[in-house]
Amino acid sequence: MLAFTLLSVLLCATCSFALSFTDGLLPNGNFEYGPKPSQMKGTEVIGHNAIPEWEISGFVEYIKSGQKQGDMLLVVPEGSFAVRLGNEASIKQKMKVTKGMYYSLTFSAARTCAQEETLNVSVSPDSGVLPMQTLYSSSGWDSYAWAFQAEVPVVDIVIHNPGVEEDPACGPLIDSIAIKALYPPKMSGKNLLKNGDFEEGPYVFPNTSWGVLIPPNIEDDHSPLPGWMVESLKAVKYIDSDHFSVPEGKRGVELVAGKESAIAQIARTIVGKQYTLSFAVGDANNACEGTMVVEAFAGEKTVKVPYTSKGKGGYKRAVLKFTAVSTRTRVMFLSTFYTMRSDDFASLCGPVIDDVKLLSVRSPRFFL
Concatenated DSSP letters for 268-332? Predict the structure, then answer.
């Protein structure tokens, strides 16, 4: 009886562990648990497994918040520690996932030396290159999202710096790496677009106030924003209602880089049938002031929606009516102008779009 009781407790504990997975930081994803003093040479980490839960290669530094680099003070957004990847350095962690499931990684990164840096992000066999030459926040830190589909039950998550700087210590700071399972929504009778409210998307760190950048689809085979493609040269920003003003629900998209920042989706339509595309345009309550214009495209029609922002939140609604000329209709949104925040004149910002709906116009019925 005692053996049966112990077995039952073990089984319950195992089930609880299996079901207790929640979206959030990877184990030691904020690097608060660091190497032992014997595994450090100055700031350089010595030993492949010196950082708990991680495997490192190349020149990796363990950085404490407030540490100085010349005249620059290094700031860490989450907790007190981060890692810096030198030339050809990488960090890796194994993770159990569900085969066939979609996931999104979110991590924070900051440049420290070079004017242009890139990061290779990979979950075998998928990989992508994220450019870091454009800064979107005045703090120097940005959060990035990158998505993948699990092809095996155990994957290696790798972030690698391919840089070739003269100073081997130069390279990006990495902190706060999280994962989130994605559940791609389907279209319905209430909306022919998928994820038109943007509620499904990457993990947003609760302790950061700069949103999450979603890179162009040419750098990401699987979008962290299910249903949507980022068809532009620069990223769009995924924002939440805890830190920004969002027209509807808890999530929205900020078009932060003018015409270089666009999102699109292809919807099934019937040739000759009439449709209405409705959406909300606003500002994120982030000191993004001035007249902003969102351009919406559907079929052969386009509309420009001006929005005068005081940078304190608010929105307006707009509608684009069109007749489908194909069985596949591309719906796209972009911002006409570049805009900078009025409180620092350094951070790119732009209009917010949300609550996007595509519906067919029913033909009126005539009764005799």
Answer: E--TT-EEEEEEEEEE-SSS-EEEEEEEEEETTEEEEEEEEEESS-EEEEEEEEEE--SSEEEEE
Which domains occur in the chain, in start order?
A: 25-182 (2.60.120.260), 256-360 (2.60.120.260)
**What pLDDT is attached to residue 254?**
97
Query: Do 252 and 198 meet the contact criterion of CB atoms below 8 Å apart?
Result: yes
Handedness of CA 59, 64, 65, 67 (dihedral sign): negative
Please report the pLDDT score of residue 45 as a whole number: 96
The pLDDT score that the predictor gives to residue 84 is 92
Question: Is 366 strand, coil or helix?
Answer: coil
161: left (phi over 0), alpha (psi -120 to 50) or beta: beta
User: Rounded CA gap, 228 and 44, in Å?
Assistant: 41
What residues of the chain score a pLDDT lower than 70? 1-22, 70-72, 114-116, 133-135, 138-139, 168-169, 218-221, 363-368
Check residue 167 and give its pLDDT. Answer: 74
pTM: 0.88
Listed as own residue / partner, the contacts of 246-250 with beta carbons closer than 8 Å and 24 or more positions apart are 246/284, 246/352, 246/354, 247/280, 247/281, 247/282, 247/315, 247/352, 247/354, 247/355, 248/197, 248/280, 248/354, 248/355, 249/197, 249/198, 249/199, 249/354, 249/355, 250/199
Cα four-point dihedral sign 215, 220, 224, 226: positive
What is the distance between the terminal CA atoms of the chain, rounded to a whole angstrom? 80
Q: Distance of CA 53 to CAs 26, 39, 162, 267, Å? A: 9, 15, 22, 43
